[in-house]
Design brief:
about 210 residues, mainly alpha, two-stranded antiparallel ribbon, 3 helices, rod-shaped
């Protein structure tokens, strides 16, 4: 049977073990919260990137519309000039300009159609992706709230555990307490002291 002094140390160690465990859990919470916040930021960035891509396509479509309108104005201008010229070579030269502008309009309209299809596809993908990512954000935010709630509970438990450690230290003799504290400071992990039962070590279970 363990000596009374060892019994007191084992009680103290048990209280310290609980305290250390609570402190470890508390220390892990900010890291978990930080990880959730990084995930939320990544989801929001992905949504914004998709929105920016859609805006860029819409801007490209607007530019193409402006280019088409400008080319059509050139065609109208050249046709009006054809009505005023008297020389055949000038008339033909304007005809060449009209053909060139109309060919350019055709190419621009092909590009415009491609961009319009890309916009339709981007809108569908954006809507689906945004809904999915917003749902993921809600889940991460819920996890953060749970962690914050757990943090509050752990702090309350830690206060209680610290009070229990203080109470358990009081009856331990000063020399033993100093030795215990020194070992606590030097060792990486608990236990520091263990009982011997049936000739076996209570820590490594060897004789």
């Amino acid at each position: 049977m363990p000596s009374p002094d060892l019994e007191l140390l084992l009680v103290l160690q048990d209280r310290d073990t609980r305290r250390v465990g609570l402190e470890s859990q508390l220390a892990a919470i900010p890291r978990e919260v930080g990880l959730m916040e990084q995930k939320i930021a990544a989801e929001r960035a992905a949504i914004e990137n998709a929105r920016t891509e859609l805006r860029e396509l819409e801007s490209k479509k607007k530019l193409l519309e402006n280019d088409i309108a400008s080319a059509e104005q050139k065609v109208a201008k050249y046709r009006a000039q054809q009505l005023e010229v008297r020389k055949n070579d000038e008339y033909r030269a304007l005809g060449v300009e009209i053909d060139t502008a109309q060919n350019a309009i055709g190419l621009l309209e092909e590009d415009e159609l491609k961009v319009m299809f890309a916009i339709d596809e981007a809108k569908k993908n954006f809507a689906a992706s945004e809904a999915e990512r917003k749902q993921a954000i809600l889940l991460h935010e819920g996890r953060i709230r749970t962690l914050r709630e757990r943090e509050g509970n752990l702090r309350a438990e830690l206060q209680s555990a610290q009070a229990e450690v203080t109470a358990a230290r009081a009856p331990v003799a000063e020399p033993l307490r100093r030795a215990y504290d020194r070992l606590m400071h030097e060792r990486v992990s608990l236990p520091i002291c263990v009982p011997i039962r049936d000739g076996k070590c209570g820590g490594c279970h060897m004789r």
